[in-house]
Amino acid sequence: MDRELSSARRLIEAMSTEWRPEDYEDTYESRVRQLVEAKRRGEEAVAGEEPPEPTNVVDLEDALRRSVDRASRPRGAPGGGGNRAGGGNGNGGGNGRSLADMSKRDLYERATERDVPGRSRMNRRQLIRALSDGHRKRNAS
Q: Residue 96: inside a domain, yes or no?
């Protein structure tokens, strides 16, 4: 514990610099001032760029854990070392696997197929919950 704390302190000290506010510019305030000035001159205010679309960020720790689990299973076992790197039963859709056994990428793909709202911001646990809830709702209809 002391060694970890010492390492953390050294890292913080190495990354620390003297605060010099003149080195920074408030770009938000600058853009707002430009928009106000444009409006005052009677110009049309143009909307800025749209934020980039969120990407499917993979949880690397989770992916590594699943990879180690697959590698440690016997070759003939489901999801074992003899299967493809994606795991599963080879049908690509994840059918026959429980949601808990699926990778975040597979869960995200299934959420995309089911058009789950907000899926790009969800972590693995949230994707499982959303897909489980959506599955129950579909069966209830």
A: yes
Is the pLDDT at 139 greater than 60? The verdict is no
User: What is the reported pTM?
Assistant: 0.32
Domain span holding position 107:
60-140
* Phi, psi (rounded to 5 degrees) for 47: -65, 145
Buried/exposed code over 54-91 (b: 16+ C-beta within 10 A; e: otherwise): eeeeeeeeeeeebeeebeeeeeeeebeeebeeebbeee
Q: Please state the domain count of the chain.
A: 1
DSSP state of 67: H
The least confident of 56-65, 83-92, 113-122 is: 83-92
